[in-house]
Amino acid sequence: MVVTFTVRMTFQSEDRNEIQDALRKLAEASRQEPGCVTYIPHCVQGDPDAVLIYEQYKDNAAAEAHRASDHFKKYAVGCLYQKMRERSREDLIALV
Fold first, then answer.
1. Is 16 helix (H, G, I), strand (E, B) or coil?
2. Disulfide: which of 8, 12, 37, 47 matches 56 by Cβ 3.0-4.6 Å?
3. At residue 75, what are phi and psi to the nearest 5 degrees?
4. pLDDT one-digit tens code per residue, 35-90
5. CA angle, residues 48, 88, 50, in degrees to nearest 5
6. Which domains are seen in the chain, by residue range?
7. Alpha-carbon separation of residue 84 from 9, 60, 96 (angstroms)
8. What does the alpha-carbon distance between residue 49 and residue 40 come to, in Å, rounded to a whole number?
9. How far are the Cα atoms of 58, 63, 70, 73 from residue 15, in angstroms, in the given order?
10. Using CA atoms, how far apart are residues 49 and 67, in angstroms rounded to an integer?
């Protein structure tokens, strides 16, 4: 069963360049994980201080492996989580 979710985070404007750099590095490394189907960070149009990440993993174990990875700890926990003002997650179920 494919695991799909989005994560939305907001940041201070002055952190925008650092956040975008961390997201690029996190995405590049995450896409190399054997269980990652897709990992796409987005800027939210009309809200430049918000990002949305669309993530898919082949199963729950792959999603857990992502959260346990060194690159997640470095870029998500070590940067994004330290700078974010708000965070929300939505789990998705494909219709087809």
1. helix
2. 37
3. -90, -40
4. 999 999 999 999 999 999 999 999 999 999 999 999 999 999 999 999 999 999 99
5. 5
6. 3-92 (3.30.70.100)
7. 6, 25, 33
8. 17
9. 32, 27, 22, 19
10. 24
39: which 2 tokens?
Answer: 């990992």
CA proximity to 92, closest of 50, 37, 43, 47: 37
Q: Is the predicted pLDDT of residue 96 greater than 90, yes or no? A: no
The pLDDT of residue 13: 96
> Cα torsion at 69, 38, 64, 53 (round to 10°)?
90
Q: Which two structure tokens, joined as six digits, stand for 55? A: 């993530």
